Amino acid sequence: MKVGCIGLGDIARKAYLPVLSVLPGAELHLQTRTPATLTRVADSLRVPEAQRHTDLDSLLAQDLDAAFVHAPTAVHPEIVARLLEAGVPTYVDKPLAYELADSERLVDLAERRGTSLAVGFNRRHAPGYAQCAEHPRELILMQKNRTGLPEEPRTMILDDFIHVVDTLRFLVPGPVDDVTVRFRAEDGLLHHVVLQLAGDGFTALGVMNRLSGSTEEILEVSGQDTKRQVVNLAEVIDHKGQPTVRRRGDWVPVARQRGIEQAVLTFLDAVRSGTVLSARDALETHELCERVVRAVTDPTA
Questions:
Q1: What is the largest CA-CA distance in the chain?
Q2: Is 231 helix (H, G, I), strand (E, B) or coil?
Q3: Listed residue (103, 110, 53) closest to 82, CA to CA
Q4: Which residue of 119, 165, 223, 247 pairs with 282 in a disulfide if CB–CB is 3.0 to 4.6 A?
Q5: What is the pLDDT of residues 59-114, one digit of tens each?
Q6: Is 35 left (phi over 0), alpha (psi -120 to 50) or beta?
Q7: Which of 214, 196, 192, 213 is nearest to 205 (CA)?
Q8: Residue 180: what are its φ and ψ, rounded to 5°?
């Protein structure tokens, strides 16, 4: 199986290439426009010269079986469209695009071409979060906080808060009939945002504070007088009277604990079996993010 990796930045090097480079039967092709980066990364993985590419045309000429896109978000629409037009099953980092219209166009293109398109919402595959889907979920609270990082609203929401939005969508136990957004912004920068989703018998709250004084991610689901808490995707605490703590095993790879390995294998298994994956559900997360962006940038609308 010929697998392309487009973009060799931090997320590719730290999260995806450690998984892709050791897959049995995979012929890994790397592509970036920066020759020095290509040489450094390819040398570290012992990728042959013939599998190194500095332009997309060269990569597409390899008759790829699948591709992973880790290039900057701004160029996703162009790259993903080229791959889909070529009939290459494509996995792309979230978000598909900064603008909802571009995301819609890519999902429509994938469906017209009958080609798989998957978006990298790895938290759906992370063991601690996936197990929360089996827990009573009358109240869901997710916090993903940072220090000293207020940012332009669209960038912050689509590049980072989207993980919170998608995790809430993944865990809510029924249809959402109420959406509320609260936020603090100053001088065009978003400091914090709170999203509330509510439905019959449940409430879900997603919080991101970019001036929190702490870098952390905490998920809590509770109901029927029990609570499960997941701290930084690694520590699971069950509360029913006395808390019970389960920590990530010393030998469990970070990519597996964060759901990246499982997301990669799920995508490639679908490619091998000829199953076409749809990004239509992922598009619903992008639509909800757009709703948050509009609430923040035009609160009078």
A1: 60
A2: strand
A3: 110
A4: 119
A5: 999 999 999 999 999 999 999 999 999 999 999 999 999 999 999 999 999 999 99
A6: alpha
A7: 196
A8: -130, 140
What token pair was written down for 157?
Answer: 């929401």
State which amino acid sits at residue 164: V
Q: Is 152 left (phi over 0), alpha (psi -120 to 50) or beta?
A: beta
Which residues are within 8 A (CB) of 190 and not within 5 positions of it... i.e. 6 or more apart? 150, 151, 152, 153, 156, 157, 183, 184, 210, 296
Contact 31, 54 (CB under 8 A): yes
**Cα torsion 269, 275, 279, 285: sign:** negative
> What secondary structure, in 3-state letters, does 155-167 show?
HHHHHHHHHHHHH
Quick one: tokens of 68? 């992973």
Give the whole-angstrom CA distance, residue 134 versus residue 278: 24
Closest-CA residue to 121 (of 277, 296, 234, 275): 277
How far apart CA 33 and CA 155 sit, in angstroms, is 23
With a threshold of 0.85, does the pTM exceed it? yes
Structure tokens at 17: 């290439």
